[in-house]
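Fold tokens
===========
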Amino acid sequence: MKVPTKYIAELGEEEKKELKRLMKEDPSSRVRMRAHSILLSNRKYSIDEIVDIYEVDRDTVSIWIQNWEELGYEGLLDLPKSGRPPILNEKEQEKVKLLVQKDPQSIRRVVGQIKKKPEKK
């Protein structure tokens, strides 16, 4: 039994241009993959064909298409993830970055040094 498929609405030239840019230049591999999938759908690749290309679940590709239709470019981005709050505040993080650049082999020692020194205000 053939499973019905859906395609995105026809893309304008500016949308295609921006999607191609995202596909090539975005730092997130997931955003690049989603942008490419939208371009493939525009070229009438079926969901199953995109699934084969990216080796993801059919529902995943369907959600990518739905997110594009509802949210546009925002639908390609990852949602913020919750997690443990950072151990260091922003100022301490900047200090760590500078110290690690000087001595990249001792990250734990650098973090320990930052936490031992009381923050001067």
Helices lie at 13-25, 29-42, 47-54, 58-71, 90-102, 107-116. The chain has a mean pLDDT of 86.
